[in-house]
Amino acid sequence: MVQQLLNPETDADGGQWRTFRYVVNPQTNCSSIGFAVGPFRLFVPPEMPRMTHFALPECFEDLVHCTSKLASTMSYFEGTLGASYPFKTYQQVFVEDLPDQLQYVAGGAILDQNLLHGPRIIDRELPSHLAQVKALVGSWIGGAVGIQSTKDAWVLIGVIGHLVNTYVRSIYGEEEYGYRIQLAMDALTTMELTTDQQSPALLSSEVDVYSEYDPFSV
User: Which domains, from first to last, does the chain contain?
Assistant: First the structure.
């Protein structure tokens, strides 16, 4: 995404305002366009200047702590997939009252502010990081997997979940990977037992197979 600041202007009442224009150069479907507006503070990791993180001022210290690993995650997927991130920059913003835990868009992601935490809350470390990994992967391949209808959404969700699990297996080892697979199987069993002898839906609003690693959701 490219930002351009147009010349500041003054309206008839003497008030000054500025116009920002944003352009996404790669071909992107309109459903992948998203933005957030607020008095955010930003953090740019020195080792990954292509990446920018945003949060409200009172959450800035937690923002720096929670996003410290994502630069290496970007490098991991670029090496694993053998391709660069398809957009010039990656930007993620943490906001309040998000309907879902995360939403990935072209060149970035919008995440729930509740994912942020301080260094003393160690049990939130892995869920917070993996939510950011999922958002990064979703932003990466969301435009590459064609979704013709909501019935096709399971393909995208499955590919993202597989890549996230591959990352977990490489970084956190077989035990954590196996634990996630077991939780996914338990989630699928729950779906089958609650369908009243009908074929289980490929997507369920009650169970998110690839979010069950969060200890607060099980």
Answer: 28-194 (1.10.390.10)
